[in-house]
Amino acid sequence: MDFDKIFENNQHWIDEKLSRDKDYFRNLAKGQNPDVLYIGCSDSRVTAEDMIGAQPGELFVHRNIANVVPNTDINAMAVIKYAVTHLHVTDIIVCGHYGCGGVKAAMMAEDLGILNPWLRSIRDVYRLHHDELDAIEDIDARYKRLIELNVLEQSVNVLKTPEVQEAFRAGKLAMHGFVFDMETGHVIDLKFDYQKILDEIMEIYRLS
Fold this sequence. Notes:
Elements: H1 6-20, H2 24-28, E1 36-41, H3 48-52, E2 59-64, H4 74-86, E3 91-97, H5 101-106, H6 116-128, H7 130-134, H8 139-159, H9 162-169, E4 174-180, E5 187-189, H10 194-205
Parallel strand pairs: 1-2, 1-3, 3-4
Antiparallel strand pairs: 4-5
């Protein structure tokens, strides 16, 4: 990226937006009212808005390495709380992507220093599904399946939060698990059955 052109590019972007709508930035500054909380990977190749055709103000976005949602991550918990309780989003998307470096690192028996606690969440996903994963002989296919299972398990982690449980009980929220295939550009719906999962985990994770 040519840093000398940052402000030049910014001005081009401003001019392009204003050429279509002279009130674009004035309206943008009035506030946000997104319908969707998007939880995705920090990978620089995966941009949430471009991928699903969303406009500024339509997505509330949280990104981290391998789209992980651990209950000890205050950042992720605060994002979920704010999105559900204050922005009143109607949908939550957890989106992973094939070729995820974080998931691949978690598959390796290697000490990665400060990354170890973060990647442990993905290794826990492998532990939960090791019978299915170990039965897949092709390493690339196993890697893809772990990416999918990681999305599903992180979606379950979202369901465990009190504000999400409350919104579901009120019928105000839906959840989706997606995977982005970088080689084709397609977004794949994993058909996350959040109601079934919610019913199964409530005996343990019900908070009120």
